[in-house]
Amino acid sequence: MSVKAFKLVSAVEREMLMGDKNYINIECLECCGKNLYIGTNDCFIYHFLLDEKTSTAGKTTFAATKQLHKHLGLKKPVSELRAASALTRLLVLCDNTITLVNMMNLEPVPTGARIKGAVTFTVNENPVSGDPFCVEVCIVSVKRRTIQIFLVFEDRVQIVKEVFTPEQPCAVAVDGYYLCLALTTQYIILNYNTGVSQDLFPYCSEEKRPIVKRIGRQEFLLAGPGGLGMFATVDGISQRAPVHWSENVIGAALCFPYVVALDEEFITVHSMLDQQQKQTLPFKEGHILQDFEGKVIVATNKGVYILVPLPLEKQIQDLLASHRVEEALVLAKGARRNIPKEKFQVMYKRILQQAGFIQFAQLQFLEAKELFR
């Protein structure tokens, strides 16, 4: 049974990006506050300002205003973008090199600081250095079976550690000292400070695209065998039941209490609270799904869309209206971390009361009595 948890809203139309140039494709995205950056296959970076508007009827729309675009001077696609807002820098991966550019004018830093030999990279959102004026970057190196850790400052980079892996890594997520790696045949957790590694489960990266995503402190979400979305902690255990995805998931994102997944035809929404599939949105030709500071963005080769969450209270009321009391109560309890304490207590009492009346009307007197209590 479905819940309307998200609405899909267009953010950047293809004309704004490419006009009538059909050969231009979106390769990667980054969103930081209102700043949206798009990297394309013809080596351009585009910078848009996103303005979110909500009408009196509760309809959300986005107006994207193009700020500027910049060619990187190569004939290769821009493969990854990451913002380091504390440094006002954008980290740009193109042709196996990470370049630092200014977030506002997209000009490379004057020192020409760069990291060479990167296949893919990620930023440590739980850094260990304690320096607010640098970011920790973890790269899968072009060197065989090698991960490198760098500190990136405003105008320079510094290598901190080189770690060797038992097989070739193809995807990485990082939390503190812990690396969660998709290798050729399995996922592992590796502490790059101590060198201790922990096998998670087998996975064939040649058959499917691995997904490795940090979803919170010391916890990751992985695309497991059999179309399962698996949760794993840095200790190599799972504290949540897996969610059932399709076999060919391309990307995954977290927007608590939901895990959102993208495959070739659909966006699916599962609850982390009861692992049930709650919503399916048809979406063809999607190839990017990412969350940025709670904002879930999905893209085709030609356009960018935002998944706008419906207010949790509205979702709970919809569940109660269709007499799905258990699901409403699970979602209400899960909403506790998103709502201020006093407001939550008032809302939760009202929900218990409504649920009690629904059970009472269905002659489930014992259940109703517990809820009224």
From TrEMBL:
UniProt entry tagged with the keyword Transport: yes
Localization per Swiss-Prot or TrEMBL: Cytoplasm
Residue ranges of every copy of the CNH domain listed in the record: 23-296
Upper classification of the organism: Eukaryota, Metazoa, Chordata, Craniata, Vertebrata
PROSITE patterns assigned to the protein according to its UniProt record, in alphabetical order: CNH
UniProt keywords, alphabetically: Cytoplasm, Protein transport, Transport
GO biological process: autophagy; endosomal vesicle fusion; protein transport
Species of the source: Chloroceryle aenea
Gene assigned in the entry: Tgfbrap1
Cited InterPro entries: CNH_dom, Vam6/VPS39/TRAP1
One GO cellular component term noted in the UniProt record for this chain: membrane
Superkingdom of the source species: Eukaryota
Keyword Lyase carried by entry: no
Name of the protein: TGFA1 protein
